[in-house]
Amino acid sequence: MPHSDENHDAEQLMMGAVPGEPALGRGPVRNGGYSRHEYHHPAAGWGAARSVGEVLERAGEPPEGVRALFVMNQEDGGFDCPGCAWPDDPNGLHLDICENGVKHVTWELTRAKAGAAFFAAHPVRELAQWSDHDLEAVGRLAEPLQYDPASDTYQPITWNDAFTLVGDTLRALPSPDQAAFYTSGRLSNEATFLYQLWTREFGTNNQPDCSNMCHEATGRALTAALGTGKGTVDLHDWEAADAIWVMGDNAASNAPRMLTWLAEADRRGAQLVHINPLREAASRRTIVPHEFADMATFRTTRIGTMTVQVRIGGDMALLRGVAKAVLEAADGEPGVLDREFIDRHTHGFDGYRELVAATPWPDLVQGSGVAEADIRRLADSYLHSERVIIAWCLGLTQHEHGVDTVREIVNLLLLRGNIGREGAGPCPVRGHSNVQGNRTCGINHRPDAQFLDRLAEVCGIRPPREHGLGTVETIQAMHRGDIRVFVALGGNFALASPDLQYTAEALRNCDLTVQVSTKLNRSHLVHGRRALILPCLGRTERDIQASGEQGVTVEDSMAMVHISYGMKDPASPHLRSEPAILAGLARATLPDSATPWQDYAADYDRIRDTMARVLDGFEDFNRRARHPHGFRIVQPARDRVFLTPTARAEFSSAALPDDTDPGDGRLLLTTIRSHDQFNTTIYSNDDRYRGLKGLRTVIFMNDADMRERGLDEFDLVDVTSFSRDGSRRAVHGYRAVRYDIPPGCAAGYMPELNVLCGIADVSTQSEQPVTKHLVVEVTPAAADGG
Ligand SMILES: Nc1nc2c(c(=O)[nH]1)N[C@H]1C(S)=C(S)[C@@H](COP(=O)(O)OP(=O)(O)OC[C@H]3O[C@@H](n4cnc5c(=O)[nH]c(N)nc54)[C@H](O)[C@@H]3O)O[C@H]1N2
Ligand SMILES: Nc1nc2c(c(=O)[nH]1)N[C@H]1C(S)=C(S)[C@@H](COP(=O)(O)OP(=O)(O)OC[C@H]3O[C@@H](n4cnc5c(=O)[nH]c(N)nc54)[C@H](O)[C@@H]3O)O[C@H]1N2
Ligand SMILES: [Mo]
Fold this sequence. Notes:
Elements: H1 10-15, E1 35-36, H2 46-59, H3 63-76, H4 99-109, E2 113-114, H5 116-121, H6 124-127, H7 132-137, E3 140-141, E4 145-148, E5 153-156, H8 159-172, E6 179-183, H9 189-202, H10 216-226, H11 235-240, E7 243-247, H12 251-254, H13 258-267, E8 271-275, E9 285-286, E10 301-302, E11 306-308, H14 315-332, H15 339-345, E12 346-347, H16 349-358, H17 361-368, H18 372-383, E13 388-392, H19 394-397, H20 402-415, E14 425-428, H21 435-440, H22 449-459, H23 471-480, E15 485-489, H24 493-496, H25 500-508, E16 512-517, H26 522-525, E17 530-535, E18 544-545, E19 548-549, E20 552-555, E21 560-564, H27 578-589, H28 597-602, H29 604-614, H30 621-625, E22 631-632, E23 649-650, E24 667-672, E25 677-678, E26 681-682, E27 692-693, E28 698-701, H31 703-708, E29 716-722, E30 728-738, E31 745-749, E32 774-780
C-alpha cells in the first residue's frame, strides 16, 4: 500500500497500526530525539525536582504556589492527594509530598480551560488525531456538553437538560440491566455511596470498576483466605517489621511515599526484598520523598538488600519454593513453624504441606525462573525474620493465576504466624487514591446478600439480587448490543480497557455514553450515538453546597478513612460536585424516588449518616471522619478473627500455573507504567529511573533475546500478540531497548500496548484482563505494507 507521511492518520500511527512507520505513542508529540542512559542517581531527589518544575511550567503554575498548597494541606487537614493510595504518615512527622503527587495535583489545578469555544472549533474527528497528552493538556472541562452529530462537535447543554436526557433514556430501556455504570477509583466515599444507591434503586448491579482491572484478584484471594478482602497491616507495622518484601510493584514511581518507609526500615537493618522481573529503582538507592521538599538535606539511603528477578508470572512458583524450603527446615526443627497459630487459627495445613512436599524442586525452579540456591537464600531470610510484611501490586494480580498467587502469599505468611501481630502481614498496595473506599462503600458488581439486605432496610429500596457485569463483561455486552447506556464516573474507559479496537466498537455501539470528568480524554471521543460530558469539581477544589462548605472522605491502602476539603476555587463556575451530579441524575431517572437526593447533595453529613447505618465499621461516621487522622475501618483478620466459613484462615492448595512458558521463540510481555504518567494521563515521554528519554513506544528486552533476533538498541520492531481465542493483534514501529530482565520476558507501556490485549484474555479466577502476561512474537520491523 503506497503511503506518504502526511496521509497517515495520526490516530493509526499512535496505535502503531501502520507497518513500516514508527509508532507515535500517546505522550506529547515528539519534537526532539530520544536517548537512553543508565540511571545512577538515587530515586527521587534532584531529578524529581527538575521534572516537577517542567510539569508546573507547562501547567502555568508557579512551583511555589503548589508547594505552598501542599504544606497548607498538611497543616490544615486539607485535601487528600488525588494520586496514589499510600497512607499519610500517622505520626505527622513527615511532610508527605512526593514528586508525582505534586504532578497529579498540578495537572488538576491547571488554569487552562476547555470551554464551548474550544469544542466548537475542534470537531471530534480532528481531536481524535491528537495525542492523549495533548487532549488532557487542553485543560479543565468547563461546562456540560452534548455531542452534536450534524457538526461532529460537542455543544453546550444545560445541566437540567443533560439530567433529563439521561433520565429519559434510562427509563426508556426495556430492562435496567441494559445500562452499565463504571467507576474509576478517585470517587469519594460519599459520591460512591450515592452512585451505587442510584444504580441499585434503578435496578441493576452492572457496576464495572477500575478494580476489575487492578486489584480484583487481591480482594477475592484475601476474602477467601482471611474472610475480608483487605490487607491487615498499617504504617506502625511497617516501622516494626524485620523484613519487607515488595512484589510486583514499581514503588519509586507509583507509590513514592513508600520509599520513606523502605529507607527507614533499611536504616534499622530490616531485610528488604524486591521480587520483580525488572530491576526497578526502589531496589537501588533513594532519597526519601519528603526530603524533596527540602533539597538542602540531600542525602541518599540504600534501599534494597535483595532483588529476586522472577520470570513474568513466576511468583507463585517462587513463593511455593520458599514454602518448600521452610517446610523442609521444619522437618529437622519443628519450631520453625508457628504450630500453635496453625492449629488454632488455620484450616487446610496438612493438605498444603503434602502438596508442597510432592512438588519437585525442578518444577519450582522452572516455574519461577529462579535458581534453587536463590530460592533457599530467600527462605533463609524469611526464617531469620521474626516479623514479615509482604506487599504487592499489579505484577501479581494481572495474571490468570492472580488469585492463587495472592493466596500463596498468605500461605507463606501463615506458616510462621505472620499475620495479626505487630510488624507482620499481607499488604496490598492499592492504586487509585480511593479505589479501596469504592469497594467498601458499595461499588461491586457482585455485592453480597448481607450488604444488600442492609441497603434495602435502611434506604427503603429493593436492590436487584443477581450479580451484574464487571468491566470486560460490560465491554462484551456493549459490543453485542445488550448494554445500550454507559455511564462513567471518572476514568478513561476507552483507553484503560483491554483490546482498544474492540472496546471502541463496543462504546460506539451504545445509544448513550455519559462521562463525568475533569479533563478531556479519549473516552469523550470514542462515544455512543448520543454523548454527554459532565464536568465535575476535582478533589483540590472547594465544594460549596446549600448547607455550606463540604468535605468528602477517602480510604487509603491501609483502611484509614479521613476527610478531605478542597482549597482552590473551582476551575469554572459551571462545575458541579460529583454528589450533586449524581443527585441530579438520580432524580431525573427516578422521579418517584423516596430517597432524599436533594438533601444528600445539600449536606454530605446526611449521606454519611445513612452510610453509618448501612456500612460495617462506619458507626458514628460524621464524628470519627473529623478526627485529625481519621479512623481505621475494623479489619477483623488483624485481630486473628477470620470471617471465613470455617472461622479460620484458609491455606490454599492450588496447582502451579502451567502458562509460564510462551513456547516457540515467543516472549511473555508485561505492560507497565512509566515514571511520567498516571494511568492514561501521560505527563511526558520520559521514564527517568529506567533511563529512557523521549520515547514511549518501546519494548524492553533481554540482551540475549535481542541478539537472537538480530536487534540493536532502538531498532524498529513489530510485535504480534496471540490471544487465547486464536486471534492475533499487532503493533508496528516500536523500538527494542535492552534491559535487565530475564530471557523470555519483555515489557512495554500501558495504555499504548492495550491494543495487544485480546478481549478473551481474562483471568478465569478474577475476571481481570491478564495485562501482565501477553504472549507475543517480536520481530524486526517489516518494511512498509507487508
Ligand atoms: N505515578 C503514578 N502512580 C500511580 C499510578 C500511575 O500510573 N502513576 N497508577 C496507580 C494505580 S491505579 C495502580 S494500580 C498502581 C500501580 O502500581 P504498579 O503495580 O507498580 O504498576 P505497574 O507499572 O503496572 O508496575 C508493575 C510492576 O510489576 C512488575 N511486574 C510485571 N510483571 C510482573 C510479574 O509477573 N511478577 C512480578 N513480581 N512483577 C512483575 C513490573 O516490572 C513493575 O515494576 O499505582 C498507582 N500509582
Ligand atoms: N495494559 C494495561 N491496562 C491497564 C493497566 C495495566 O497495568 N496494563 N492497569 C489498569 C488499572 S490498575 C487501572 S486502575 C485502570 C485505570 O483506568 P481509569 O481509572 O479508567 O483511568 P485513568 O487514566 O486513571 O483516568 C483518568 C481520567 O480520569 C478523570 N478524572 C481525574 N480526576 C477525576 C475526578 O476527581 N473526578 C472525575 N469524575 N474524573 C476524574 C480525568 O478526566 C482523566 O482523564 O487501567 C487499567 N488498564
Ligand atoms: Mo489501578
